[in-house]
Amino acid sequence: MDPIADFLTRIRNGLAAKYKEVTVPYSRMKFDLCRVLMEEGFISNFRADGEGARQRIVVALKYTEDGQPVIQGIELVSRQSRRVYVEATGVPRVLGGLGAAILSTSKGLMTDRDARRRHIGGEVVCRVW
Q1: In this structure, are residues 91 and 103 in contact, taking their beta carbons and an 8 Å threshold?
Q2: Where in this chain does the entry annotate a coiled-coil region (predicted)?
Q3: Which CATH number is 120's domain given?
Q4: Average pLDDT, stretch 24-47?
Q5: Of the four listed, 9, 18, 34, 45, which is most buried by Cβ atoms within 10 Å?
Q6: What is the pTM of this model?
Q7: At 46, which CATH number?
Q8: Is 107 inside any structural domain?
């Protein structure tokens, strides 16, 4: 199974079950995804625990004051069997700018807004709203 798809599914399932935290196996890509999600305000915090093969990322999920999850939807765009690449002029918008598309670029992972501002394209990893 695709590790990024598993990461997004764990977050989706944790939100549906109203968990405060979810734990996922560590990878640098997932760690960077957490960094972008936190910068955009979709999760409250994250940290790496353990070492070696047992290293994990603990993601603290974020909810509104009335208990609704901040992340209303999160979906994988690029899959292992079908990668989706965009040029700098074709970077997608999510819900007219209310959500965020996360791109893997030559400058690292970044949101669609950052990619448009820097005028670079890349692989669209996922969409969050």
Answers
A1: yes
A2: none
A3: 3.30.1490.10
A4: 96
A5: 34
A6: 0.92
A7: 3.30.1370.30
A8: yes
